[in-house]
C-alpha cells in the first residue's frame, strides 16, 4: 500500500493538506481552507521522509487548529519548512 499524500478534515471542515513533488524534485506541503487561504511550504530537508511527512499531515488535519498543529508535528519530526506562498 502506498503513502497517502492528501488529507481532508474529518470533522466536516473544508481543510485540505497534501504534499507533492515539484518538477525539480523538491517536496512541498499545501494547505487550503476551502474558502480564502491557500498556503504552500517547501520542505527544506534534503532527503525528507515521505512517511514522516504523511503522518504529520494526518495528525494536523484531524485537529481543529490545523496550521498550529502542523507546525508542532513537523517540529516534532525535525522536518524543516520554508514558506513559499500564502
Question: What is the string of SSEs from the N terminus onward?
Answer: EEEEHHE
Q: In percent, how helical is the residue content?
A: 25-40%
Taking all Cα atoms into account, the compactness measure Rg is 12 Å
Number of domains: 1
Strand content: 25-35%
Which strand order spans the largest sheet, edge to edge or round the barrel? Answer: 1-2-3-4-5
Shape: globular
- Average of the residue pLDDT scores: 84
Poorly predicted residue ranges: none
Can you tell me about this structure?
By secondary structure, this protein is of the alpha+beta class. The protein has one domain (6-85). Helices cover 27% and strands 30% of the residues. It has helices at residues 50-61, 66-76, and strands at residues 6-8, 16-21, 27-32, 38-43, 81-85. Strands 1-2-3-4-5 form a five-stranded antiparallel sheet, with helices on one face. A hairpin with a 7-residue loop joins strand 1 and strand 2. The model has no long low-confidence stretch (mean pLDDT 84).
List the helices and strands and how they pair.
Layout lengths: L5 E3 L7 E6 L5 E6 L5 E6 L6 H12 L4 H11 L4 E5 L1
Antiparallel strand pairs: 1-2, 2-3, 3-4, 4-5
Helix pairs in contact: 1-2
Amino acid at each position: 500500500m502506498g503513502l497517502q499524500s492528501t488529507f481532508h478534515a474529518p470533522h466536516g471542515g473544508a481543510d485540505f493538506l497534501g504534499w507533492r513533488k515539484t518538477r525539480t524534485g523538491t517536496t512541498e506541503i499545501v494547505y487550503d481552507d476551502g474558502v480564502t487561504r491557500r498556503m504552500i511550504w517547501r520542505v527544506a530537508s534534503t532527503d525528507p521522509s515521505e512517511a514522516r511527512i504523511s503522518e504529520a499531515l494526518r495528525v494536523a488535519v484531524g485537529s481543529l487548529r490545523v496550521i498550529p498543529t502542523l507546525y508542532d508535528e513537523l517540529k516534532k519530526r525535525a522536518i524543516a519548512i520554508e514558506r513559499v506562498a500564502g
